[in-house]
Amino acid sequence: MNIKSAISLITAAAAAPAVVAGPLGYAICQTGCNALVVSCYAGAGFTFGVALPAAPPVIMACNAGLGTCMAACAVVALGQPI
């Protein structure tokens, strides 16, 4: 998977419609976001979770996509009933 398709996938996941599931849905959504960012890092030739002295722009884009995805999870899942 190349970096552009990984970022597109993260963005699409963040914009996907929500399902009512509460905290369990939030946890599942977060796991999906993490899987996408790992793919994004791998597509750029890096390993997610390994500290770098300076983050290249492609990693910053992966991180921004992860933040967007996780924020969307919080908005749609945590305010819903279990």
TrEMBL record:
Q: Which domain of life is it from?
A: Eukaryota
Q: Could you say which residues form the signal peptide?
A: 1-21
Instruction: Show the taxonomic lineage.
Output: Eukaryota, Fungi, Dikarya, Basidiomycota, Agaricomycotina
Q: What name does this protein carry?
A: Cysteine-rich protein
Q: From which organism does this entry originate?
A: Rhizopogon vesiculosus
The alphabetized UniProt keywords are: Signal
